[in-house]
């Protein structure tokens, strides 16, 4: 049972209250009574507006459902006119350019990977903050980028055959991005700095230098014996690291032990879809970790490979420039924090009417409050060099909801005594009404926006839910190549560029959701840059290091300059509903799709509900480990709901599929001592019941979101299994 402290008209969970009083508020210059008084007023003023916006969502959905029941979607003109008539498609505002100021260079000048991490996991979150720099040798050695042919397997201790392949790959990278005049880095025997230039001795006794001397920018150590050489290419850095006493350096002709890559330039510390935070205890952990990141003192101690490790934030990296000047590069990513959207309420704080307050309002206040410590220099490290706080706001539908976020940000700035537009916003373009009205959405925050990003996973869930009544949807795997999705991706980049984001903001692309398939990522994710994205999401630091290689290959600014010339309007593509021509599906194909969705859904839900894990690697039907979070769950649950609704499968078939897949998921988790089987007592399993709710009640879930059911069932599980809340 949550214990509350009454402060003015609010009741605040004791745990959260004490955390704010003793850890978050001190050294912010804010007075506690004023803080809570302002907080109460904020809730009084904004909670009703928040509620009204949610009612608008429901009203739109009802109208759309009714239209589909009464009309044939093939009549595209009528459909488009209907959406305009109900103002689901808004009238576009006049052309404008964003005017955001005080944005860090990472956003305006550096194209690079964006890592996402569940913030409730301190070990991962610190790792993510430190993922600015990553070892190329480790990223190659540990993943399938280097194949296991000809004895190069990954098993056991260091395999020199594999090591050779790693080194060859890395030297090919050097030859491509920082080529030598008439020689390969593979022939280098010594690197030195002579007269402010890189001098490379070769194994034939000659010396050479770089083809483009400007790419070499600094070093560590001595000119005769540097231990790090710093290069910059397309705005991203990397180091050749030299150590002739190191196990790898000793067998390398030039003593090279590694290539250190500037990897995740920015990172999203996620309070949303990758965490399971359902009550005051969970939310306090989320806020405490974010505070620790902003105060620079978050640490995590754990045992790895039999050794006790304490992980803390990395310091900056220092080099000597070619004129002897000192160069300092950040040792950490630029941190964004993703708040929750407008939907959920939280029992961590109860308002004057005895009601839970909107969680999005609470997140905005507290994540901004923690970030004030960064602004005030209460940390040995600085996140923003420009005095900004970077908040990602997900799951907004249309421009009125963005305007509401802007109002909330204004109010929070006033409350926390921050200059106007300190709080920057990243808009997730991941709901259909935002995609269709993206220009208007950007306009509402034109002086604080720093990114738009295609959250294609949520967006796919919303596509299915919005058009639930239009017909059965195409299979999950076909979504990627569908017209609406391609139109949506293009529209995002074009709208960003037309509103002046080139050189001013991030235009981001979505998550690589197969964390173990790094060879495929390396082959495919370059498309995100070719499509004009100056950042794209990766699930792990290793993926960030490998994805960074793409930014060395392609100069995104040049790509954006080309795309800027195009004038196509993508609305007609975006409105192509992905209805299936299902008549040709065989029984096997249908069952295969049901199995696949049911397996990933159960594999994710069981850990969420029973263990409070918000992001998991779950094997699909082909044993490919997929990153599953609440957005991928939204897709699989809405997919199953849609097929059930349109009679592609029966309820009995669906439940039998879930039961069969539950047994498989139980087996997959057999080695986890904390795991509770779902089979055979399905009625006893809170997780299995949650999965059934998600599918059977999917039609009535707001926008097809999974949060309401997950939260309810997680709270039930916490009570049943006596987990502290
Ligand atoms: C649609 C959307 O909203 S997408 C955004 C939400 N998704 C995410 O945030 C995905 C983030 N990624 C993750 O949470 C994880 O990578 C998962 C759950 C997918 C896989 O986790 P695991 O199964 O533990 O991964 P795995 O065993 O391969 O790797 C663990 C190691 O990698 C590190 N790691 C993995 N992912 C991350 C990450 N995102 N950030 C930092 N470190 C990470 C861990 O710290 C750990 O290293 P350590 O032992 O030195 O601490
Ligand atoms: O948040 C990301 C998404 O794809 O959804
Ligand atoms: Mg999302």
Summarize the helices and strands and which ones pair or pack:
Elements: E1 4-7, E2 10-13, H1 14-24, H2 32-70, H3 76-85, H4 105-108, E3 114-118, H5 122-129, E4 133-135, H6 136-141, H7 160-177, E5 188-194, E6 197-202, E7 207-208, E8 216-221, E9 226-233, E10 236-242, E11 256-262, E12 266-270, H8 280-295, E13 300-304, E14 307-311, E15 317-321, E16 326-329, E17 334-338, E18 345-350, E19 356-358, H9 359-375, E20 389-393, H10 398-415, E21 423-429, H11 432-436, H12 438-444, E22 449-454, H13 456-466, H14 476-479, H15 483-498, E23 506-509, H16 518-524, H17 526-530, E24 535-538, H18 541-553, H19 556-563, H20 571-574, H21 587-611, E25 616-619, E26 625-628, H22 630-645, H23 651-668, H24 686-696, H25 707-720
Parallel strand pairs: 3-12, 3-24, 12-17, 17-20, 20-21, 21-22, 22-23, 23-24
Antiparallel strand pairs: 1-2, 2-18, 4-11, 5-6, 6-7, 8-9, 8-15, 9-10, 10-11, 13-14, 15-16, 18-19, 25-26
* Share of residues in strands: 15-25%
Domain unit count: 3
CATH architecture of the largest domain: Alpha-Beta Barrel
Query: What is the count of β-strands?
Result: 26
Structural class: alpha/beta
Strand order of the largest sheet: 3-12-17-20-21-22-23-24
Uncertain runs: none
CATH superfamily of the largest domain: Malate synthase, domain 3
GO cellular component, one term: cytosol
Organism: Virgibacillus salarius
Binding site for Mg(2+): 430, 458
Main location: cytoplasm
């Amino acid at each position: 049972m949550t214990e509350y402290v009454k402060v003015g008209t609010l009741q605040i969970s004791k745990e959260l209250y004490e955390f704010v009083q003793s850890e978050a508020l001190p050294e912010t210059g804010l007075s506690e009574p004023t803080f809570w008084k302002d907080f109460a007023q904020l809730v009084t003023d904004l909670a009703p507006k928040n509620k009204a916006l949610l009612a608008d969502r429901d009203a739109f959905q009802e109208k759309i459902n009714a239209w589909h029941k009464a009309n044939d979607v093939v009549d595209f003109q009528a459909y488009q006119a209907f959406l305009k008539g109900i103002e689901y498609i808004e009238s576009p505002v006049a052309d404008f350019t964003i005017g955001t100021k005080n944005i860090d260079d990472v956003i305006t000048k550096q194209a690079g990977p964006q890592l996402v991490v569940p913030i409730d996991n301190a070990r991962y979150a610190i790792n993510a903050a430190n993922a600015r720099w990553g070892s190329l040798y480790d990223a190659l050695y540990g993943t399938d980028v280097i194949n296991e042919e000809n004895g190069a397997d990954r098993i056991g201790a260091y395999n020199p055959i594999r090591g050779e392949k790693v080194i060859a790959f890395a030297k090919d990278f050097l030859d491509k991005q920082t080529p030598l005049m008439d020689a390969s880095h593979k022939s280098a025997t010594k690197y030195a700095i002579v007269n402010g230039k890189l001098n490379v001795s070769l194994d034939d006794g000659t010396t050479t230098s770089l083809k483009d001397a400007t790419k070499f920018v600094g070093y560590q150590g001595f000119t005769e014996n540097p231990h790090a050489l710093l290069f910059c290419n397309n705005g991203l850095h990397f180091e050749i690291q030299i150590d002739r006493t190191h196990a790898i350096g000793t067998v390398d002709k030039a003593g090279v032990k590694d290539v250190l890559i500037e990897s995740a330039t920015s990172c999203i510390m996620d309070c949303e879809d990758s965490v399971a935070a359902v009550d005051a205890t969970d939310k306090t952990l989320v806020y405490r970790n974010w505070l620790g990141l902003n105060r620079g003192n978050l640490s995590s101690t754990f045992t790895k490979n039999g050794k006790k490790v304490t992980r803390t934030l990395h310091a900056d990296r220092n080099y000597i420039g070619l004129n002897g000047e000192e160069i300092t590069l950040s040792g950490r990513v630029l941190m964004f924090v993703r708040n929750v959207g407008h939907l959920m309420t939280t029992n961590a704080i109860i308002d004057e009417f005895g009601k839970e307050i909107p969680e999005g309002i609470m997140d905005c206040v507290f994540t901004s409050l923690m970030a004030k410590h960064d602004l005030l220099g209460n940390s040995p490290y600085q996140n923003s060099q420009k005095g900004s706080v970077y908040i990602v706001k997900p799951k907004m539908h249309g421009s009125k909801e963005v305007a509401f976020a802007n109002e909330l940000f204004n109010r929070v700035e006033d409350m926390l005594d921050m200059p106007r537009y300190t709080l920057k916003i990243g808009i997730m373009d991941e709901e259909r009404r935002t995609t269709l009205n993206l220009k208007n959405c950007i306009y509402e925050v034109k002086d604080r926006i720093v990114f738009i990003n295609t959250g294609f996973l949520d967006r796919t869930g919303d596509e299915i839910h919005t058009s639930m009544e239009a017909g059965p949807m195409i299979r999950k795997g076909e979504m990627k190549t569908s017209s609406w999705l391609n139109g949506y991706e293009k529209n995002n980049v074009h709208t960003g560029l037309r509103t002046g984001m080139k050189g001013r903001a991030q235009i981001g692309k979505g998550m690589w959701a197969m964390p173990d398939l790094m060879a495929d990522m390396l082959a495919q994710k370059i498309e995100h840059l070719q499509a004009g994205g100056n950042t794209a999401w990766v699930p792990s630091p290793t993926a960030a290091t490998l994805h960074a290689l793409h930014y060395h290959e392609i100069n995104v600014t040049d790509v954006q300059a080309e795309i800027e010339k195009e004038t196509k309007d993508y609305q007609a593509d975006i409105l192509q509903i992905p209805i299936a021509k299902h008549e040709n599906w065989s029984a096997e194909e249908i069952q295969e799709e049901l199995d696949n969705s049911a397996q990933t859904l159960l594999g994710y839900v069981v850990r969420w509900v029973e263990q409070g894990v918000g992001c998991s690697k779950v094997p699909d039907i082909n044993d490919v480990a997929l990153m599953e979070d609440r957005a991928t769950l939204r897709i699989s649950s809405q997919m199953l709901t849609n097929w059930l609704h349109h009679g592609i499968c029966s309820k009995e078939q669906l439940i039998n599929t879930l039961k069969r897949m539950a047994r498989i998921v139980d087996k997959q988790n057999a080695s986890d001592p904390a795991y509770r089987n779902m089979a055979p007592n399905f009625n006893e399993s809170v997780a299995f019941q949650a999965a059934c709710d998600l599918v059977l009640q999917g039609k009535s879930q707001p926008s097809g979101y999974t949060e309401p059911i997950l939260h309810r069932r997680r709270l039930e599980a916490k009570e049943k299994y006596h987990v502290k809340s």
